[in-house]
Amino acid sequence: MLDQLFIVSVATLCVEYNLTVNGEEFLMYDTGPQDDRILIFSIQRDSFLDVMSDKPVGRPMKFPYTFTAKVVQFPFKFYVQNNWLWRYYIFGVLGSLPVFYYISRLSNSPENKAKWAEIRRKEAEGHH
Q1: Which of 51, 9, 54, 49 lies closest to 32 in space, CA to CA?
Q2: Domain ranges for the chain
Q3: Alpha helix (H) ranges present in the chain?
């Protein structure tokens, strides 16, 4: 298990802060009661995540004004099931890929590049 280390400098430490919510000890090292006291805490990663994910933080906003809140509350399932555009978007992209590949291959061919270089050369001669 990976441990997360927290180094804290405090003057006093109460006994209640020696245990996690689950009752596990997490104080690894204490230098003593001097002014520059150093405490080293260690929490197993699973215990830390259990404490952090006990319950949801809050409720959904009435009007989601942040971008993240809008994404979280967006009804993706409803739109995918009831809107034809979402369903056929993938088919449209997959169907158009060969066409764009063909056009790209033709436009980037050495013959085409030479042809356009000649056109640009003639165009530049006329201006000078």
Answers
A1: 9
A2: 3-52, 76-127
A3: 45-52, 67-73, 76-82, 84-107, 110-127
